[in-house]
Specification:
Elements: H1 7-14, H2 34-37, H3 41-52, H4 58-64, E1 75-77, H5 87-91, H6 100-125, H7 132-156, H8 179-193, H9 212-227, E2 230-231, E3 237-238, H10 243-260, H11 271-277, E4 287-291, E5 322-324, H12 326-331, E6 342-343, E7 345-347, E8 353-355, E9 362-363, E10 387-391, H13 392-407, H14 412-425, H15 430-444, H16 448-463, H17 469-476, H18 479-499, E11 510-515, E12 521-523, E13 551-554, E14 560-561, E15 566-567, H19 569-573, H20 595-600
Antiparallel strand pairs: 1-5, 2-3, 4-10, 6-9, 7-8, 11-12, 11-13, 14-15
Helix pairs in contact: 1-3, 3-6, 3-7, 4-6, 6-7, 7-8, 7-9, 8-9, 9-10, 9-13, 10-13, 13-14, 13-16, 14-15
Length: about 625
């Protein structure tokens, strides 16, 4: 268990940064000179910590990190009957320029970027700039800046771009800059600083701070974004002709990490996240960088993770704003141990496990019940559970993907990287390894296309609930295809299981459960097949009958509206803003700028294009 969390120190650095105006400002005037602030390693460290502090705002904790994402083929936020100018409109791809969450995230991002710019300038001009620790801090500042820009371009496309801190007298009204320019500049910036940084093993707080391994991975992530597809204002999706140059950078830097700082994967998949829930930082396994939250801060296991109802128990309450598709649940192989991380039950007010409906499946990667110190019956937010930004398996799969693209076919090295990810997910007996790992990889390696689709699937299985799927679908240019595919499968599951005929008729429309003496849930016949008979039902034919009987819960049948004989609202509304039932047109994932951002830009920013108009 970690004894010190970064955010316990972060606020010390905030007051020493300079201020600026408009949406690129930090709001905290300083009486200290830059020479003083960056004259010692201790003070410079506090300054850099103030960049991390922007992770501790609602703009990140309850928005950008998880609930700000649009609905994908695997992660689905609950959408209402009609748009309501909340995060639900972002989920359904219907956001407008009046959505307050858009303004909150935009402003927070540019505040973080300007703090990073201040630190980069101060560190580069410091009289002790050549000290190894100052180079490490410079790398952290540049990586944090790049990370925020990465998120900005994935939500707003071309955005204002500045690598210098803004001060009084500067021109605050900056136009958009092309994503290609932004990404190329950031990639080159990180490539120059990466060799001068320290690995996690040599950094205080380990993976709770930016480290050399993460920067290598971030270079690969940015490069795949630069080499991927983008949505343009005319609603076409294209990638640049030089895209393979960036796939090569992604391949080279993921390989550099794999050969220079190779890591052992955490043997049990769920332990990665259980460690986070237990406030335990492991800096030499899966996690490359995770946002650190002190107890009393952070929203993990409040708005994402296992649902725990409020009660007299000491753990407080939390739910999951972002669910997982029941189609994903059935896409896993039944022997895949990653299935354990999908939540199909919640804890009620008495901490009894109660099944969720199929439209309530969510991630169970994090649980407030595992916190080493229960936060109290009235608690909700502020769990102190860290949030993962990048894991080593992401790097392995980026390597496999880029190798496949560059060589126009899967290579032995790419297949080996995919194998490492998949092998961890399955039991280690020889038969299972042969059939579910080796034979599987041989089959999907038949062509470049089949191997790519295997990567698409593996990233879904590996990162479900970690809210990075949206970024993958954008750069792959298959967002629309995957939405239509998800809707079709869900609609078919609901109808088939309701009428007991069709492709998915063998799956349960209804499940039957009861609780063991230790409050755990057990299912009659499991959840992966329809039971041929109905078990004895509790309280049937009258209350008190069959006290040891089973309770029925609607499962896949909830995906069908029997009254209107059509798919349920869950299926029809989740991607309501995307109208093309063929999946051929691009998804409008680009968000509008908030009206207040436009008005304060003095005419330099508009919502032209992407179907928004002014």
């Amino acid at each position: 268990m970690k004894s010190i969390k970064i955010f316990g120190l972060l606020m010390l650095g905030i007051a020493i940064l300079s201020s600026c105006k408009k949406f690129l400002e930090t709001d905290t005037p300083s009486n200290f000179t830059q020479e003083v602030i960056f004259g010692t390693e201790a003070d410079a460290t506090k300054s850099v910590f103030s960049i991390y502090a922007l992770f501790n705002q609602d703009a990140f904790t309850s928005r950008l990190s998880n609930t700000f994402i649009g609905n994908t083929d695997i992660e689905i936020g609950g959408v209402g009957a009609a748009p309501d100018n909340s995060r639900r409109d972002i989920w359904s791809l219907e956001a407008t320029d009046a959505n307050g969450d858009i303004r909150t995230v935009w402003n927070n991002a540019y505040t973080a970027i300007n703090r990073a710019n201040l630190c980069v300038e101060g560190l580069e001009q410091s009289k002790i700039a050549e000290n190894p620790e100052m180079k490490q801090l410079l790398g952290e500042s540049k990586a944090l800046r790049a990370l925020w820009y990465y998120w900005l371009i994935n939500y707003w496309g071309d955005v204002p771009f500045n690598l210098k801190p803004t001060r009084g007298g500067d021109n605050f009204y900056q136009p958009r800059v092309g994503r290609d320019t932004i990404l190329t500049t950031l990639i080159n910036d990180l490539i120059s600083i990466e060799p001068l940084m320290k690995p996690a093993s040599q950094v205080t707080y380990g993976v709770e701070r930016i480290n050399r391994e993460f920067v290598m991975g971030l270079i690969s992530r940015l490069a795949l974004c630069r080499g991927g597809y983008w949505l343009y204002p005319d609603m076409t999706s294209k990638r640049k002709s030089d895209y393979k140059e960036y796939y090569k950078i992604a391949r080279d830097y993921s390989l550099k990490l794999m050969t220079t700082f190779d890591r052992s994967l955490t043997p049990r998949f769920q332990d990665i996240f259980d460690n986070q829930s237990k406030w335990k930082v492991v800096s030499n396994e899966d996690i490359l960088f995770e946002v650190a939250f002190a107890p009393g801060f952070g929203d993990v296991a409040w708005n994402i993770g296992r649902t725990v109802d409020a009660g007299t128990h000491p753990y407080g309450s939390g739910s999951s704003y972002v669910g997982l598709s029941p189609a994903l649940y059935y896409a896993y192989d039944t022997l895949d141990t990653r299935l354990e991380s999908l939540a199909i039950f919640k804890y009620n007010s008495d901490l009894v496990q109660i099944p969720l409906g199929a439209n309530g499946v969510s991630t169970g990667k994090w649980s407030r019940l595992l916190m080493p110190t229960a936060s109290g019956s009235a608690s909700a937010k502020g769990t102190g559970i860290n949030w993962p930004i990048m894991r080593y398996t992401d790097v392995l799969l980026m390597f496999a993907e880029s190798e496949n693209e560059l060589n126009e076919a899967p290579t032995a090295a790419g297949k080996a990287a995919l194998r490492r990810v998949r092998a961890r997910a399955f039991p280690k007996d020889a038969t299972t390894v042969q059939t579910k790992v080796d034979n599987y990889i041989n089959t999907v390696s038949a062509s470049k296309e089949t191997f790519f689709e295997a990567i698409v699937d593996e990233r879904a299985f590996e990162f479900a609930g970690e809210c990075i799927r949206r970024y993958d679908l954008i750069r792959w240019n298959n967002y629309g295809k995957k939405i239509v595919e998800a809707k079709r499968i869900l609609a078919q599951m609901g109808e088939n299981t309701y009428y007991n005929i069709g492709t998915y008729a063998n799956l349960p429309g209804t499940v039957y459960y009861k609780n063991t003496a230790d409050k755990k849930v057990i299912f009659y016949g499991g959840t992966f097949r329809r039971t041929p008979e109905i078990p004895p039902i509790k309280d049937v034919p009258s209350k008190g009958s069959n006290p040891d009987g089973w309770t029925a819960v609607g499962w896949l049948s909830v995906l069908y509206n029997k009254t209107l004989t059509r798919p349920a609202d869950y299926v029809l509304n989740s991607w309501r803003g995307y109208k093309d039932e063929t999946g051929l047109t691009p998804v409008r994932y680009i968000l509008p700028l908030h009206s207040a951002t436009i008005s304060s830009s003095m005419g330099t920013l508009t919502n032209d294009g992407y179907g928004y108009g002014n």
